[in-house]
Amino acid sequence: MEFLTDLFAQGQLWLFETLVQPLVFNLGGGNLLEDAFAATGWLLVGLLQIAVMLTAIRGLERWRPVEAQTDRAAKRVDVIYTLIHRLGLFRLLMFFSIDPMWDYLAGQMRMVGVPSFQLDALWPGVTDQPLLSFCLYLLVFDCVNYWLHRAQHQWNWWWALHSLHHSQREMSMWTDNRNHLLDDVLRDAAFVLLARLIGVEPGQFIALVAFSQLMENLQHANVRLWFGPVLERVVVSPRFHRRHHSIGIGHESGGRGTLGGHNFSVLFAFWDVIFRTADFKLQWDATGVRDQLPEEGGRDYGRGFWAQQWLGLRRLFGAS
């Protein structure tokens, strides 16, 4: 762990001194160097993630694809979403909007004497074991993520935004970040607040987000892959998550068109087992939203990035 941490720190410093610092100075942002250094960490993580996607996960998609994919325009839009998130543009939006509010609230809490809290300090020795501490926080984050994901499928106003993610008919490793930006702001704000409440260090937070995102890239990949009858009930596989995206199955339950669904877990499938929302049928269905189908009205979710964002807002106002 120390070797990897040191290697990452050296890469972050090199990238900052070579690229980011000169750019910040040229833009007149000398007072933002500390924040720019932190942003460089997110940028480096994003570049490493994209490298893994283009090598390992893309290799899996070529090895055993679920379906032949011909809609290259739809995939290019998903690539744009991925680059916005992984190269720091979305983090930049959060920096100028949500982060200052949390910084202010944290400062006010310290001023009135609210004690700081670290979840991993509740058990002796955990803080001295970085890997154990990471796993503990990962479990907490994933449990919260499960319930947030269920809320996205349960509340009409949130589904109006989240349905954009499900509207991709040819799902691939790029589909993970295909979300309405307002949807992402809500979820990211929740996790930033959670990280502050339970004492997650900035470096740990980056590692938690990076690991989760790569796993989600794999889950959305166009690959005919599952993890076997035992591991499938522990870790979310591409097969398990594709069932969540299945038309009329993954985002519906009970009556026709009723919001709900199955397989909400993000990393660990046992949350769906515990809370009785798991569907382990070993099949690979067509993906999408029921109301996209011509016989169901042929709803337009937009072809381009801005069209998708605008139509998401229209759905939101309609649901409200």
Summarize it.
With 320 residues, the protein is mainly α. The protein is 61% helix and 0% strand.
Give a structural overview.
- This protein is mainly α.
- The chain has one domain.
- It contains 13 helices and no strands.
- Helix 2 packs parallel to helix 9 and helix 6 crosses helix 7.
- The longest helix is centred in the N-terminal third of the chain and has 31 residues.
- The radius of gyration is 20 Å and the shape is globular.
- The mean pLDDT is 87.
List the helices and strands and how they pair.
Blueprint: H1 2-26, H2 33-63, H3 72-86, H4 89-96, H5 98-111, H6 130-154, H7 156-166, H8 181-198, H9 202-219, H10 228-231, H11 238-244, H12 270-274, H13 305-319
Helix pairs in contact: 1-2, 2-9, 5-8, 6-7, 7-13
Structural features:
single chain; 320 residues; mainly alpha; 13 helices; 61% helix; 0% strand
Main β-sheet description? none
- The helix count comes to 13
Helix content: 55-70%
Strand content: under 5%
Distance between the termini: 48 Å
- Record field, number of beta strands: 0
Low-confidence runs: none
**Quaternary structure of the protein:** single chain
| Shape assignment | globular
